[in-house]
Every structure is written in C-alpha cells, then in structure tokens.
Write a structure and sequence with these properties.
The chain is of the alpha/beta class. The protein has one domain: Ribonuclease Z/Hydroxyacylglutathione hydrolase-like (Metallo-beta-lactamase, Chain A). The strands form two sheets. The chain has a seven-stranded mixed β-sheet. Strand 3, helix 1 and strand 4 form a beta-alpha-beta unit. Helix 8 crosses helix 9. The radius of gyration is 17 Å and the shape is globular. The two termini are 17 Å apart. Keywords: Hydrolase. This is Metallo-hydrolase YycJ.
Amino acid sequence: MGISFTVLSSGSTGNVTVVRNGETALMIDAGLSAKRIDELLAMRELTGNDIDGILVTHEHSDHIKGLGAMARKYDLPIYANTNTWGAIEKGIGKIPDYNRIIMESGQHRDFGSLRVESFAISHDAAEPVGYNFYDGKEKLCVATDLGYVSDKVRDAISEADVLVLEANHDIEMLRMGRYPWNTKRRILGDMGHLSNEAAGAALSEILTGRTKRTYLAHLSRDHNMMDLAKMSVRCAMEDRGCFFKDSEFKLCDTYYDQPTPWDKLSQLS
C-alpha cells in the first residue's frame, strides 16, 4: 500500500499527525485533548483503536496535551528519547512500563514494512526531534518546531517525496505583534521557530526534483496566514533561483481546526 498520512491539526494550539501504511498506523504527537483528537480521527474514518503507537517530538504542551489520555484510553505505546521522557513523564500521568518505549535521537525502528527514523532538531526543548518514514522507496519527512535548518537537518529532510515543514511566522508580523519582546526574541532565535522566509530558503537548497509536495505546518494564528506563508515561501525560493511549476512541486495547506485530506505518496503528481 505504501505511505499515506493526514495532518489532523497543526499550529500553536495543537499538533497531531497520523502516518500509516498497510500494516501500521502511527500518531506523531498528541497536542490536543483526547476528545478533540478522537473527533479529528473520526473525520478521517479512524479511531484510537486503529493507532499502533505515538511518536513524540518534544515536551511542549501543544504536542503532548492529550498524550497520556490517549495512551491510557487505547493502551498505546509512547516512543520518545530519554531526555524527552524525563521532560514529559510528570505531565502525562501514569503510563505502564510496557508502553514507555525509548527511541533515542538518530535511531530507527521498524514497524513491519514501515521504518521510522528520528533526527535531532534545534528548539528550546529537552531533546527535540523530527521524523522520517520509509516504506520501500517512499520517504515522508515531518520537521516542525525548529529554530533553523542545520546542515544535519538539511541532510535528513532532503530527498523526501513529501515534506511537512514548519513555516511558523511572518517576521514583520511577529515584530509588530502583541507578544512581549522576550517571547519574540525566543521565536526568532535559533532555538525557536522557522519563519516563512527560512522555510523557503531551506526548500531552495534541498529540492532536487524528488520532493513533489511540501505541507507548510505549525503556522502561528497571530503572526501568519496560509496564503501569506505560501507566497512568502515561494518568493524566498525564487529569490534564490529556485523556480517551479505547480505540476512539478506544490505547497500545501495545513489547518489548526480540521485535518488535511489523506495523501498517498504512491499517487504523487
């Protein structure tokens, strides 16, 4: 069957993604209430009983709000590195030892024919990671909550068929926004969030013709808009000499309040 996925919710209010192939369905983060996650799963004809485990990127509340409740309700294993476990265990409640799985940064784990590989990213968390998913020749990459794209991250996210990449904020909207300066400085820093322009700059360096779609994710509701993000990312790419036609490469939307349609990597066009 190959890889398919849906971004159930993405943004500063909560993040949940489901990746599956014919054998396995995995959830990346659980940053909404269990009730809301169940509602979003139902919109894509899933229930928590269809999920085989939850992969955690880092411990911030918009990524783990419903983690403990989902794990207990559906008896799901949680996969996270040692430092992230240390940061989340007090906040997610009691989890049986058999569902506390350590998956260190840089390691891979096979779930049948679906291989999952984590990679370290830069963010103000204990040990944040992104994830790559492989099935045969297919590759899906999910990379959000990263202050900048390092050489190692660039290598990790390159040559993906589909990429879910953070485009958190418009720099000028953020600078003029209502947040206190310390918060703005954190977001703009190397341990913060990726701006629209930074996302475009990264894409201009990694696109080789294999990546057919990039979903712009984790948009700030206060300091970004989807149309602005797509325009800014495209302009940043073109400023660096990276031009493309929609038939060759597409920038796709994500939403904080509804899931994206199922996207099958085997049906790239």
